[in-house]
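Hey,
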Amino acid sequence: MRGTKILATVGPASIAVPTLKAMLLAGANGFRLNYSHGSPSEHQQWLERIRRVARAHDEPVAIVGDLQGPKIRIGDLTAPRLVLADRGELTLDERPAPGTAQRIPVSLRGIDRYGQAGDPILLGDGSIELRVKRVVAGGLETEIVHGGLLTPHAGLYLPRARLRATVLGAKDRLDLHDAVTGGVDYIAVSFVRSAGDLRKVRREIDRLRPPRGAFSPVGLIAKIERAEALANIDEILDEADAIMVARGDLGIEVPLERLALEQKGLVRKANAAGKTVIVATQMLLSMVSSPRPTRAEATDVANAVLDGADAVMLSEESAVGQFPAESVAWLDRITRATEPSLEASRFDFDPDPSLPPEAHVAGSAVELAARTRSVAIATPTHSGKTARLVSRLRPPVPIWAFTTSEEVRRRLALAWGVRSYRSPIHQPLLDARELAVRVARAQGLGRGTLVLTAGYPLEGRPTNLVTLVELGPERAASGRRARAAPAARRGAGAGAAPR
């Protein structure tokens, strides 16, 4: 089983049902809806198609709704791509007319207040650089220092401007409503600066889909793409369910030569906190137009796996590229080839008294599985918490999560090494053991042991038990189950507490 998960962005190139099916079969574990592009009706249609394909193949697939956030963008263009030539001139203004190679519209009101002669301006991923020549009424006249291909709605970055925008603009609030009520599993919050930004989005989500106890059906992904987020990463990790290393805008905020080091540090911190971490942006960019990745791209993906990423993400490659399913298949090939070299010892974190007791129980389960060479670690789970605590230690065996909740199954689709299965409500501990044994047998694992970690004795208790389950001949196992059942009935209330 592949441990590293694959998140693929859907778009015009991939939203046909046969293409979604091909991407799922190639190894996609989740799909991202980019709310910076497309209409509300398109987003809803795409979401419904993804769910339909997932149901047809009985796969728990995570859907991520990625909000645009307070990003400055250019508007529509007169062509799908415009060529901006070096040393040319380009005017930026607020007029809504589609842009040309000489003039483009921008989303920033009063743009003439945020630039002065000599200021740099970056477009797209930063590869196009402009320099302000003069400020005019309602716009900026610039010289093209480094040109390139410009696409509609590309980002615009003003390094010297001091812009403070709310994390949820008017468009984001509408998109958030559509995404949450439409049934996404995660909301990705763009340009997060602090935990306060996430709390603001969480309040809106809870209003739209109220939590059940401490469990919210919609997870929060903090996109790390600002220098402020790097400075506040510990508090952001406390508030978020996951983070995304969004290397496009982050590579503009921090010196490019430090980007790889920032990625490694962010992944390491997320691993230590037991939070899902996604590495994104240009993983296989050449596959927008090529059926094979470059050697550098294959190395980049492998390094993300070795760093400890839970998931790697496709953007343009699967949204507008010519080879969306092939891009997924290449991520699958590269991650599978790399994972045997993942050093599990790197994830043995020092005991931390601030961690909950169940985190130490998860560590015991991983250690027992390694020492006994067990075939898997199985855990009943109510919210997915225990499965993630086991996942953070990157055990050398699969993690089987048994849950009654389809929402939890879909959320866990992005957690490293976790495969989820449906289980009955109020499952006794002995039934949990038998379910794990049945899963093992269905996978042809008829001998050896597996590790079971659960809550005991009452449902609702934190995970506090680790036990070794023998995999033997089916008849013998059934006999043990029959003999053990009366004892379980005598111990009234004994059960596996989902967590």
